[in-house]
Amino acid sequence: MGALDSLSELLHFPRSHRSKKLKKSRQLQTVEIKVRIDCDGCEKKVKKSVEGMKGVTQVEVDRKQNKLTVVGYVDPEKVVGRVRHRTGKKAELWPYVPYDVVARAAHPYAPEVYDRKAPPGYVRNVVLQDPQTSGLARAGSTEVKYITAFSDDNPYACAIM
Q: Does pTM surpass 0.85?
């Protein structure tokens, strides 16, 4: 080992911590975007707008649901911005969730959840307040007793008649 080799090892600096942070922040994710797709030309234009993006591994377009799905090491806001800029169309992150998820997690009659533009089986993803403080508070045990006492489903439930 010569003097130059030992000197180069002493002066060798490890890679900056900044590049490691960038690699950690970018994780493989699926970004779903709602964008209006009317024809084959629109479909090609939307698909081509994100295919050349750095980090994109897969692009799928569902014309029937007006949905663009991008898989890769990308930032969701950058993908939406790129679609808006390149196509000139209104684009937003996919605002819908499957109906089964909302029925379990929130009140089934929550306002702004049901959207007639939503694809079949989907409802709008809405963050609800605490059900105890909102107008959608669930019925208490005494209220449930009175409601079920006069049920149309069970005519023999009424003890008064």
A: no
